[in-house]
Amino acid sequence: MADKIGKVLFTQEDITKRAKELAKQIDEDFKGEEVILLGTLKGSIPWLVDIMKHTTIETKLDFISASSYGSSTTSSGVVKIRYDASINMYNENVIVVEDIIDTGNTLKYVVEKLKERGPKTIKICTMLNKEARRTTDIHADYVGFDVDDLFVIGYGLDFDQKFRGLPYISYLEEEDVEGL
Ligand code: PRP
Fold first, then answer.
1. Ligand 1 atom, smallest distance to 103 CA
2. Residue 180: how many CB atoms within 10 A of its CB?
């Protein structure tokens, strides 16, 4: 693993396997219905693609960008919508697809905004769940993996906008950050 960036937590194989399991669960939960997969930019894209590819129900796609992070490694707590979805969510099933839930601030704000649009259901599908950092009452319906309070990168997750393209999820420690 010496050629990898950071310490690997989940390989491509781990992620694909889990995405298939969750896609199957989504298929069962929404059998005969349509679902809007609403990806949160930018980090959710690789995970969203995996979920979308493996579901067999009819899915529609849109994106929203809301952020509570600056370029530092901790959340500022202030949420801003930078890009909004344009799809009509009235009476639709919406699954918000996230890369990671940390404090839950971002998602709480997004879900409250989405509820105003009158969807039939709103569910949350996150690749990673960092429960130890949660300060809100947000819970995901579909969780890829629970993770400890680590600085995770790869598979959509960034460090100063870098490493989103890594085909695995790893984490950085201080010694790793120095050379980056
Ligand atoms: C990350 C992630 C979540 C949020 C989680 O987004 O995608 O939206 O932070 O943190 P929270 O639970 O403490 O609110 P980020 O703002 O880093 O945007 P990005 O996906 O473009 O990297």
1. 13
2. 12
Distances, alpha carbon 70 to alpha carbons 74, 78, 79, 80, in Å: 8, 10, 10, 11
In three-state secondary structure terms, 119 is coil
- Phi, then psi, of 144 in degrees rounded to 5: -65, -65
User: How far, in Å, from the CA of 158 to the mean position of ligand 1?
Assistant: 10
Nearest CA to ligand 1 atom 10: 102
Number of Cβ atoms within 10 Å of the Cβ of 9: 20
Q: How many CB atoms lie within 10 A of CB 64?
A: 20
Answer yes or no: are the C-beta atoms of 70 and 40 closer than 8 Å. no
Contact yes or no for 65/41 (Cβ under 8 A): yes
Q: What amino acid is encoded at 158 in this protein? A: D
Ligand 1, residues at Cβ distance < 6 Å: 40-43, 67-69, 75, 98-107, 158
- Alpha carbons 31 and 35: distance in angstroms, whole number: 10
∠ Cα 147 176 9 (to 5°): 25
Closest C-alpha to ligand 1, atom 17: 69
Please check the confidence at residue 159 and state whether its pLDDT lies above 90. Answer: yes
Q: pLDDT by residue (tens digit) across 25-82?
A: 999 999 999 999 999 999 999 999 999 999 999 999 999 999 875 544 455 568 889 9
Alpha helices of the chain — where are they, by DSSP H? 12-29, 45-54, 105-115, 174-178
